[in-house]
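User
New here, explain this?
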Amino acid sequence: MKEVYINKLAKFLPNEVVSNDEMESYLGKINDKESKARRIVLRNNGIEQRYYALTKEGKPTHTNVQLTAEAIRQLYDADFKPEDMELLSCGTSSPDYLMPSHAVMVHGELKSGQTEINSSAGNCCAGMNAMKFAYLSVKSGSTSNAVCTGSERMSSWMIADHFNKEVDNLKELEEQPIIAFNKDFLRWMLSDGAGAMLLENEPKGDLPLKIEFMEGYSFAHEIETCMYAGGDKLEDGTLKSFSDYTSEEWLTKSIFAVKQDTKLLDKYILDKGVEGIQMAMAKHNITPDDIDFLLPHVSSHYFVEELYQKLIVAGIEFSREKWFLNLKTIGNVGAGSVYIMLQELVASGKLKKGQHIMLCVPESARFTYAYAYLTVC
């Protein structure tokens, strides 16, 4: 087995920063009315700005494929050219198409020469799953290098026009003309962007990061679906696929809108996350003393204090100076968040040789968790 090093990191954030007060000018107002949930959600999530691949008129400026390709291009230099890439592994929860896969479309956009590709689907863990595929490829010797990415372009899923038909339908039924909180909630949480890493079997550059281990855990066997799109949730907790609805229902029920069961989220997301990190740390016999920087992907600052307290109760307290977060300034980029966090930590100048970093990524879709432990070389 080979050792695996993250030798380069890059990020791409589209257009200009979008403040909280500007959000509805980009996403639009459902039924021409300001959202009742927006201020409540923003107050709790603590996000102050984000990036959208949209104009102020709600027109797209980049595809997810283009965002991802722009991040990858920043990895190129005299020592790593486009044609040197042996594997491209891409993760996202918001691909531009149902098919072809996201990674093959990114490869087509790059026109970088023949390479192996892998697409990781899912939600926030899709970026970590793409990273693990790349890690295992280099570690096994199947390839000597791999590029992995995490990206999202959720803004185009959140524009008001996608919800207006359902509002009209609710009016006809003499129900209140508002979208359920579970749908409106996510409109104020998500951001666009992409991150990329170059993994190689030898350390290069000023501060390469050695990947010591990666672990993942799913609790789908215990808990029903929490976050979903392309279907609707039935009373018994099961999902009904878009393919089993009529094309008219796709519009009237906002079938392709992203929904989240906020009650399930609040009940399980932290407890299962703590359980997951306990298992990963116990398996590899490490303690909080062996971790200098904790990079937890959190969707909202609402969860941070409670997560801190639950970790203390579990006997794995991380002092506050070890936590590194960028949610306030970047927003929630889903599968790309941990890539962008790590890139910003490396660029911050805070790292020293011999230090250790723990990446923690939860996924609320059906409660999946991914972890990576890195050494600064």
Q: What stands out?
A: The mean pLDDT is 92. The radius of gyration is 20 Å.
